[in-house]
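Give me the fold.
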Amino acid sequence: MPIKRVSSALLEKNGGKGKTKENDDKSDPMVYLVFMVLLIDLLAFTMILPLLPSLLDYYGEKEDGVYSWLLGKVSYFREILGAPDTRKFNSVLFGGIIGSLFSLLQFLASPVIGALSDVYGRKPLLLISMIGVAASYGIWAVSKNFTIFLLARIVGGVSKGNVSLSTAIITDVSSQKTRGRGMALVGVAFSLGFIVGPMIGAGFARYSAGQEGVYVAPALFALMLAVLDIVLVLITFKETLPPNKRAKSVGQGVTSVAAYINPILLFRFSAVQQVSKADQYKMKRLGMVYFLFLFLYSGLEFSLTFLTHMRFHYTSMEQGKMFMFIGIIMALIQGGFVRRVPSGREQKVALMGLVLVIPSFIIIALGTSAVVFYSGLALYAFSSATVVPCLTTMISSYGSDDQKGTLIGIFRSLGALARALGPFAACTLYWSAGPLVCYLTGATLLTVPLLLLSVTKI
């Protein structure tokens, strides 16, 4: 083959960015920029978690029809389950409903934002998403009642497409060898965000205790971080999807409205066009494994608050330390192990994580001492640190360049749907049958995604 044709082939293989075999093993600098942008965003996003109890107490003192209506639904749900009528448990259930609403909005928005980025480029859609998130913090800063606060969460949920866009950007600039490292960095950003962000929020909670506007200072700080993120992207981000690699029109990127909101069509990846039947089958399998894992995983994660309070009498501070322990392990595993997984071995590592999460559920269910309980949490953290990044790396290898945003958007959408439904399913089983039955059932059901992935040739 002539040298000129070989060079052209290499350029085409590497996204037209001029990468050659010599630098094919190096991660693109844009990957580290995405990591920084995502980390700043997650610090602002997770900061609200320890503030929720005091925020709900504050809004509960105001006359608000939406708050009263929702509180009635929470009380009704709690009575059906037979859960204790305590301030702590009511706060957890209330927060769970708000979190599920946020995830449902992400479920609806992620595929659309991803598809639009295939047509108009990553940077414009990333900026639009970030401006929407900043606007949500601005609304939060003036939320004198629960209705306005809920509006802020709705705006934030609809705008939260930056995670799927970040994943698509990493796919754009990475080779097959370096893609896994980039996906692991996304996981590290999440882990660090969920470690540091709640600590910042706890500081604000202590600072604002007893004050009238408990929400103003943290909301303004979150807004400042969001604006910093926007400026960072405006100045330093270079478009990763050139015009010649984009979908030709919105019609090609968004084949129909139903393909982006109908769960059945999303599980089929119907909006991803021009792929072979074999690849479509593998995409559907990976999507189902991802959904089932996160459905069961997020359910246990939500119910840990109930379990540790009743079994070990953990305070909110001790529960915060528990989640910090999980986050630290995840960050270490993703940064030290997952980033070094050779290309092509992602399926084996994901299977390892799926195998280990099963005994983690059993140990957590049976552990009556802190040492045994924390050993189960360690396995639980390892599974999350390995399964999600490896599945994301595998799914990102399918589809053409002008459909990566659509593909990743649908994939992330399935995860958001799992996180919206999982906590309610686990909570129902936990209070109706007890924690032992809940976690042992979860461990048994986790064999399903394990078997699905083990029999699929990627």
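Confidence is low (pLDDT under 50) at residues 1-22.
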